[in-house]
Structures are given as structure tokens and as C-alpha cells.
Design a protein that fits this description.
single chain, mainly alpha, 2 domains, extended
Length: 284
């Protein structure tokens, strides 16, 4: 450095300064690797489930730094962790739910990391995530039932005048209900999609796992939970485009406020149009 720019190097760094530099560079390397996972993934579709393990890794590094006997390193960690905790407290629930919806991890990743973060309080935070997940599932379950009821009422209203001559068949409707209840084994189908899903073994981890395709295939098995997955996994976790560099300072590489304020229906229409145009260009 002194040969290239004599004015920039007054004296050689001490051994302590080199150790600090190595520590800082090591952490920055992890940060860059995690950021590149978010922005330069080989998967063209970045789903919300990829963020939790990467952010948890950063969380552990900050805890490790915070315990450093070196006052300089620990002071850096305190400053960085203050900003990180603001992000974590706002987002850790949705991040955890996204990874729970990954069949390779389910609750296990939460149960692994939270004791490392919260020590003796971990069980409370794990239960909080479980309750939050159940509440989200129940919300979708109620919405699904209401939608089914509305469809049934619409069908009944639209077809009522065609079925006056079949009124005698309605007399046996309660009988059919009785048969259905008495021929169903006790406890059969009493478990929710969420309970069934969490009880199943973990799906093997591999590099070319496609979580969207997995949920598409398993929608008949988990009809309500698949709706939760569809909504949660599509949540954008970053306003940096996956095709750009997260460290580029230019505003044009960030999703603008105009895009962020668009209605979901408008965003869906634009995304579909872009997909159709891109497919036509690739096929031509």
C-alpha cells in the first residue's frame, strides 16, 4: 500500500489491528455471501423461505461479536445489532412462517436457532411462532369456508327454479348426512392440514428443490395450507431487484415507491404480462 500511495500508509498496522481487520473482513464476507444469496440466486424465483436461515446466520455472528473480549469488536457489534434487532423484531415471525412452509425444515429450523438466540426464553418465542402460524392458518381456513358457502348459495339461487320437481329428494338430505357421520371412523380427518403437514417427515434437502412446485403438487393433500404457502412465499422481502447488485447505490436499481404502492391486482397483471411477453420472445 505504501508503494502504491505513500500518503495513505503512515505506519504498519499492529498485530492487534490486523486481528481486528481479519475479524471485520470475515464478517463482511459472510454479509456479502448472504446478500448475494438474496440478489443473485441461481433460482430465478426468490421465495420468502430462503431468507430465514441466512438472516439467522448473521444473527449468530452478531451475538458472537457482542461477546468478544475486544472492546472495539464488541462496540461494533452493539451498534450493528441495534439496527439488526429493529429489523428482526418487525419481521422474524413472517420469516419463521416462511421457513416452516418449507417442507425441508418445517418447525425444526426455528427449534434449532431460537435456543441459540434466546437461551432460557426460547420456548416462549417458539410457542409464539406456533400460535402465530396457527392463527394465520385459521384465518385462511375461515376464508375458505366463507368462500365455499358463498359459492353454494350462488349456485342454489341460480339453480333453484330448475329443481322444484326434485324437492322430494331433499327429504333424504339429512339421511345422507347421518350416513356420512356414522360411517366415518372416529378421529378420521379430524386433524388440520397444518397438523398433518408438521407430522410428516422432512423432505430431503437438495440444491434443485422447487418449493413452488412442491406446493403445487401437494395442494390436494393440503388445500388450506397451500393457500397460506401461496400468500406467504410470494411476500417480497427486499426492495432490491434479484437481477441487480444490492451494493449498487444507484436509485434505479431499487424498486421505486410507485411500484411499492401498486394494488396487488395491478402487480399481478403486470407480472403476468411480463411473463407472457418474455415467453414469446424466448420461443421466437
Amino acid at each position: 500500500m505504501k508503494q502504491r500511495d505513500p500518503d495513505s500508509c503512515v505506519s504498519c498496522p499492529s498485530d492487534l489491528e490486523w486481528e481486528r481487520l481479519e475479524t471485520v473482513v470475515g464478517f463482511l464476507r459472510v454479509f456479502v455471501q448472504v446478500t448475494n444469496t438474496f440478489t443473485k440466486s441461481s433460482n430465478s424465483c426468490l421465495t420468502a423461505n430462503i431468507y430465514f436461515p441466512e438472516i439467522c446466520d448473521i444473527h449468530l455472528r452478531l451475538i458472537e461479536w457482542n461477546k468478544s473480549p475486544d472492546g472495539f469488536i464488541s462496540s461494533l457489534a452493539v451498534t450493528m445489532r441495534k439496527r439488526f434487532d429493529e429489523f428482526w423484531n418487525r419481521n422474524h415471525r413472517v420469516l419463521a412462517i416462511a421457513t416452516i412452509l418449507d417442507p425441508r425444515f418445517k418447525m425444526k429450523l426455528v427449534e434449532y436457532y431460537y435456543p441459540l438466540f434466546y437461551d432460557s426464553s426460547a420456548s416462549e418465542f417458539i410457542e409464539d411462532i406456533s400460535e402465530y402460524t396457527r392463527a394465520l392458518y385459521n384465518e385462511h381456513s375461515v376464508g375458505s369456508l366463507l368462500a365455499s358457502s358463498d359459492q353454494a348459495l350462488d349456485w342454489q339461487e341460480n339453480h333453484h327454479h330448475h329443481h322444484h320437481h326434485h324437492q322430494h329428494e331433499d327429504r333424504l338430505r339429512e339421511f345422507d348426512k347421518y350416513i356420512n357421520e356414522t360411517t366415518t371412523s372416529p378421529g378420521q380427518d379430524s386433524k388440520s392440514d397444518l397438523e398433518k403437514y408438521l407430522e410428516e417427515p422432512l423432505f430431503p434437502r437438495n440444491s434443485d428443490f422447487d418449493i413452488l412446485n412442491w406446493w403445487k403438487v401437494h395442494t390436494p393433500k393440503y388445500p388450506i395450507l397451500s393457500m397460506v404457502a401461496r400468500n406467504v412465499l410470494a411476500v417480497p422481502m427486499s426492495n432490491v431487484s434479484s437481477e441487480e447488485d444490492a451494493f449498487e447505490s444507484s436509485r434505479k436499481r431499487r424498486i421505486s415507491d410507485t411500484w411499492c404502492s401498486l394494488r396487488p391486482s395491478t402487480v399481478q397483471a403486470l407480472m403476468c404480462a411480463q411473463d407472457w411477453i418474455r415467453s414469446e420472445l424466448e420461443s421466437s
